[in-house]
TrEMBL record:
The keyword Glycoprotein does not apply. One of its GO terms (molecular function) is ATP binding. This is Phenylalanine--tRNA ligase beta subunit. Residues 405-480 form the B5 domain. It comes from Bdellovibrio bacteriovorus. Tetramer of two alpha and two beta subunits. GO terms for cellular component: phenylalanine-tRNA ligase complex. Binds 2 magnesium ions per tetramer. Signal peptide: none annotated. One of its GO terms (biological process) is phenylalanyl-tRNA aminoacylation. Its EC number is 6.1.1.20.
Length: 813
C-alpha cells in the first residue's frame, strides 16, 4: 500500500521526516509495518524550475527555432534555444537546467544548437512525463513564482512509502490509520479530519428504501441520497492526491469515494439513483445462476453464495468487492445514492477469491473495516462531493445497525507485561500506550481493564496488549538471555530422520529433489491417473475417493493430491519443453484420500521420474529401458533399509496397471509379502500427446510401509577365511518363466552352503527356439568353518539341479 507523506501531514506532524524519510521508515518497520520502498518524486524534477521569458527572438541560423533569454531567479538569466512556437515574451514556463535528467534518461547539458549556445530546455508536460501528448511547451499562470523548483510549485515534491501491511493490521490501510500509528510511535498529536456535511431537510429514506435481509453478513449499512450533482473532472488537488498513491482519476464522484477510502480506510460506493429499480436497495445473497456485469465489463455467473446489493429487480453490486455496470456513475448522472457499510471479512474474501476479482475495496473488507467508521466515512464523502460536484445532500440517512459490534474488555496487570517481556514494564507508560492506541483504560484492583477500539480486531487478550507494549516501547529493549538447559533435548522425529536419509540416498543416485503443492486440479489429475483402483492394487491408497477443498484458490487446486506421480509428470513436461532433454527428479511428500469409513488418510510417499539420457563425446545412449534405472535405485534404498525380503511382481490382470504406464514394462513391489508401490515406463501415447520425444519411467512407493520395523537390525559376520567355490550353469527355459522364480528356488535348494546366486548371461537368438531362452547362472558356495570338499560341492549342486528339474523341468544345457 502506498502512503503519501504530504497527505499524512494533514493528520500528524511529519515535517521533520521530509528531509530524512529513512528515520520514519525505520520506526515504522520496527513497529511492525515494513517499509519496502521510499520514493522521492522531487528527485525526478531536480534542476527543473519555473522560468520567465524576458525576450524571444529568432534563431540566427534556423527559421524554425527561437532564441530566448529566460530568467530563473533574481539576476539569473539563461540563453535557451527552443523548437516550439507557442510561447512569447513574458510567459512563465518550465525550465530544465543543465544537470536535470528527464524521463527516458534524457540528460540536459550546455550545448551549441546550430552554432548558438543553449543552457537549458523549455519543457512540455510530455517531456516531463506528466502527459501523453502535448502541443508545445507548458505555459504556466502569470503569478507562477520565478526560480521556484517546479516540483514544489506543482505539488510533486511528495515522498511516498510502499508499506507491507500484515493481515492483522487492517487499521493501517489508510492515511488516517497510519497517522494514528505514527502518533503512537512518536508521541505526537493526532488531528482528525473535520467532518461536517451540510444537509437539507429532504429525507434519504423517502427517496431510496432499504431492506437488509442478510444481516448476518452485513451488520451495518449506511446510505445517503445526494441530488443535483454535476459529474465531471476532479479538481487538481484531488487528482494529485490520488495519483500520489498510484490511483487514476475517473470522475469527481468516484474520485471522492476512492479518496475517503485512502483517507479513512472506509470503502464506499456511489450508485446512479436513476438506475436503482423500484427505488429500493436490498442487501441479500445472490440468486444462483444469475448474471452480473462488473464496472469494468467483466461478465460473471453468481453461485448464490455471494452477498449482493440489489434493487427491486437485480444485483447492482457485489457487496464489498465491485460495483455493477448497470448502476455506475456516468457523465449523465445527476442524483446519486452513496453507501458505506461494514461487511463481514469472510463474505468479501470468499466472493473476491471465487471470482478472481481483486479491488482496493475487497482488499480492505477482506481484512476488516471498522464498523464504527461507516457513518463517519459516509459523512466525509458527502462533504467532499458537495465541495467538488455540488448538489443537495438529503438528511435522515439510512443507518442499519441493529446489533452494534462491541469489543470485550481485557484484564491485565503490569506484572504480566514484565514477566512476558523479561524486563520491568512501567505502569504509566503502559497506560499512555493503551490510550494512544485508542483504548479505554480503567484501574481494576491490582491491574487494569482495557477496552480496545473497534478498529483493532487483533486486540482480544492480555498477550495482545503485551505485544503492543513491546512494539511501541521498542523490541530492542527485550533482553537477550539463554534459557537454562535442565532437560535432555528431545529426540529427532523418526519419520523426519528416515526421510532425510532416503533423500540423501536418492540424491546420491543422481536425482534432484522436487517440491510440489499438495493441491492439484481434479480434472487434470483424473485425466492423468485414470482409475485410482490401479494405485490401490499397488498398495498406495486405502480408497479411491479424493478429498475436495471447500474453498479452493482456483480449479487447478481444488483437491488434495492422491498421488505424487502427477506432480512429477508435470515437472518433467515443463523441464523437457524448457530444453532439459534429460533429467532425474524425486519427491518425498504426502498423498491424501478418504477412507471407507469417511475418515481422512494421509501417508508418506516417495516418487521418482527419469527421462532421456545424457550423452557426450565419451558415452553412447544405452538400449536398456529407463525403468531399470529406477529399479536399481529402489533396490539400493531397500538394501540401505536392510530389507532383504522383496519381490517384483508383474500382475496378470491388466486392470492393475495404471493407464499412464506401459503394460509390458510395469511391476509392483512386494516387501515382506505386502505391496508397497510400483515402477513402470510411461506410456508412449501419453508421451506423444505431450510432445515428449524421449523415453521416461516413473516409480512411486509407500514410505510408511517401507519404514515399518525400522531400524531393522544388521547381522554382522566376520569374513570367512575359506575359499569360495563358483559353479556356472546354463538352462534352456520358456520365455514366460520368470528368472526370479528360478533364483528363488536355487537359494532354497542350495542352503546352507549357497552364499550368492546371479545371472551373468542371457541368449535369445537364431540357434534357440522362438519361445525359448538360454539363461546362464553362477552360484557361489562356501563353508564358514572349513574348506569345501568335492563331495559337499557335488551334493549341493545336485540338490539345486534336482529341484529345478522337479519344479520347472529344467536341465543343464
Amino acid at each position: 500500500m502506498k502512503i503519501s507523506l504530504k497527505w499524512l501531514q494533514d493528520y500528524v506532524d511529519v515535517t521533520e521526516f521530509f528531509q530524512n524519510p529513512d528515520v520514519l521508515a525505520e520506526a515504522l518497520t520496527r513497529g511492525g509495518l515494513e517499509v519496502e520502498e521510499i520514493t522521492n518524486r522531487a528527485k525526478d524534477f531536480h534542476h527543473v524550475v519555473v522560468g520567465h521569458i524576458l525576450e524571444k527572438d529568432k534563431h540566427p541560423n534556423a527559421d524554425k527555432l527561437s532564441l530566448c533569454r529566460v530568467s530563473t531567479g533574481e539576476g539569473v538569466v539563461h540563453q535557451i534555444v527552443c523548437g516550439a512556437q507557442n510561447h512569447k515574451t513574458g510567459d512563465r514556463v518550465i525550465v530544465a537546467l543543465p544537470g536535470a535528467v528527464l524521463p527516458g534518461n534524457f540528460a540536459i547539458k550546455k550545448a551549441a544548437v546550430r552554432g548558438v549556445d543553449s543552457a537549458g530546455m523549455l519543457c512540455s508536460l510530455k517531456e516531463l512525463g506528466l502527459a501523453k501528448e502535448s502541443d508545445g511547451i507548458a505555459i504556466l499562470p502569470a503569478d507562477a513564482p520565478v526560480g521556484k523548483p517546479y516540483a514544489e510549485y506543482a505539488g510533486y515534491d511528495d515522498i511516498t512509502f510502499e508499506l507491507k501491511v500484515t493481515p492483522n493490521r487492517a487499521d493501517c490501510l489508510s492515511h488516517f490509520g497510519l497517522a494514528r500509528e505514527v502518533a503512537c510511535l512518536f508521541g505526537k498529536e493526532l488531528k482528525s479530519p473535520v467532518v461536517e456535511p451540510k444537509t437539507s431537510s429532504g429525507s434519504t429514506k423517502k427517496e431510496i428504501a432499504l431492506e437488509v435481509k442478510a444481516f448476518d453478513m452485513c451488520p451495518r449499512y449506511t446510505g445517503r441520497y445526494i441530488k443535483g450533482v454535476k459529474v465531471g473532472p476532479s479538481p487538481s488537488w484531488l487528482v494529485k492526491r490520488l495519483e500520489s498513491v498510484g490511483m487514476n482519476s475517473i470522475n469527481n464522484i468516484v474520485d471522492v469515494t476512492n479518496y475517503v477510502m485512502m483517507e479513512l480506510g472506509q470503502p464506499l460506493h456511489a450508485f446512479n439513483s436513476a438506475d436503482i429499480g423500484g427505488k429500493k436497495i436490498i442487501v441479500d445473497k445472490a440468486v444462483k445462476g444469475e448474471k452480473f456485469t462488473t464496472l469494468d465489463g467483466t461478465d460473471i455467473t453468481l453461485t448464490g453464495e455471494e452477498l449482493t446489493i440489489r434493487d427491486a429487480n437485480r444485483p447492482v453490486c457485489l457487496a464489498g468487492v465491485v460495483g455493477g455496470k448497470n448502476s455506475g456513475v456516468s457523465e449523465a448522472t445527476t442524483n446519486v445514492f452513496l453507501e458505506a457499510a461494514y461487511f463481514l471479512p469472510m463474505s468479501a474474501r470468499k466472493t473476491s477469491r471465487s471470482h478472481g476479482i481483486d479491488t482496493d475495496s475487497g482488499y480492505r473488507f477482506s481484512r476488516g473495516v471498522d464498523p464504527d467508521g461507516a457513518l463517519r466515512g459516509l459523512n466525509r464523502a458527502t462533504q467532499l462531493i458537495l465541495q467538488v460536484a455540488g448538489g443537495e445532500a438529503f438528511g435522515d440517512p439510512h443507518d442499519f445497525y441493529p446489533n452494534p459490534v462491541k469489543k470485550a474488555k481485557v484484564s491485565i496487570d503490569i506484572q504480566t507485561v514484565s514477566d512476558r517481556l523479561g524486563y520491568e514494564a512501567e505502569e504509566l507508560k503502559f497506560v499512555d500506550f493503551m490510550k494512544r492506541l485508542g483504548c479505554q483504560v480503567e484501574k481494576s484492583g491490582n491491574g487494569f481493564s482495557v477496552l480496545p477500539p473497534t478498529f483493532r480486531f487483533d486486540l482480544e487478550q492480555d498477550m495482545d496488549l503485551v505485544e503492543e507494549y513491546a512494539r511501541l516501547n521498542g523490541y530492542e529493549h527485550i533482553p537477550e538471555a539463554l534459557p537454562e538447559f535442565k532437560e535432555m533435548p528431545s529426540a529427532h522425529d523418526k519419520a523426519f530422520m528416515l526421510n532425510r536419509t532416503t533423500s540423501e540416498l536418492v540424491r546420491a543416485e543422481g536425482f534432484q529433489q522436487a517440491f510440489n503443492f499438495a493441491f492439484v486440479g481434479s480434472k487434470a489429475e483424473k485425466a492423468f491417473l485414470g482409475s485410482l483402483e490401479s494405485l490401490k492394487a499397488a498398495g498406495l491408497t486405502a480408497s479411491a475417493k479424493e478429498i475436495r477443498l471447500m474453498n479452493p484458490l482456483n480449479e487447478e487446486m481444488d483437491v488434495m493430491r492422491t498421488s505424487l506421480s502427477f506432480g512429477l509428470f508435470k515437472n518433467m513436461n515443463y523441464n523437457f519443453h524448457a530444453g532439459n532433454m534429460a533429467g532425474r527428479l524425486f519427491e518425498i511428500g504426502n498423498a491424501f484420500s478418504i477412507k471407507e469409513d469417511g475418515g481422512y488418510l494421509e501417508n508418506s510417499r516417495l516418487a521418482m521420474i527419469a527421462w532421456g539420457r545424457s550423452e557426450n563425446l565419451w558415452t553412447k545412449s544405452l538400449e536398456t529401458p529407463l525403468v531399470f534405472e529406477l529399479k536399481a535405485t529402489v533396490e539400493v534404498l531397500l538394501k540401505s533399509l536392510n530389507i532383504g525380503s522383496y519381490t517384483w511382481v508383474m500382475p496378470a490382470n491388466k486392470a492393475e496397471v495404471p493407464g499412464f504406464l506401459h503394460q509390458g514394462q510395469f511391476a509392483q513391489l512386494l516387501v515382506e509379502g505386502k505391496k508397497v508401490g510400483f515402477i513402470g515406463t510411461l506410456h508412449p501415447v501419453l508421451l506423444d500427446d505431450n510432445k515428449i520425444r524421449v523415453p521416461a519411467a516413473l516409480a512411486e512407493l509407500d514410505l510408511d510401509q517401507l519404514y515399518k520395523g525400522q531400524p531393522r537390525p544388521y547381522r554382522i559376520q566376520s569374513i570367512s577365511k575359506f575359499q569360495v567355490v563358483e559353479r556356472d550353469f546354463a538352462f534352456v527355459m520358456p520365455k514366460s518363466l520368470k528368472v526370479g522364480d528360478v533364483l528363488k528356488d536355487i537359494r532354497k535348494a542350495g542352503a546352507p552352503l549357497l552364499v550368492n546366486v546371479d545371472v551373468f548371461d542371457l541368449y535369445e537368438g537364431e540357434k534357440m527356439e522362438a519361445d525359448k531362452k538360454s539363461v546362464a547362472i553362477r552360484i557361489w558356495l562356501q563353508d564358514k568353518n572349513a574348506t569345501l570338499q568335492d563331495a559337499q560341492i557335488n551334493e549341493t549342486t545336485g540338490k539345486v539341479l534336482e529341484s529345478l528339474k522337479k519344479n520347472f523341468n529344467l536341465s543343464v544345457r
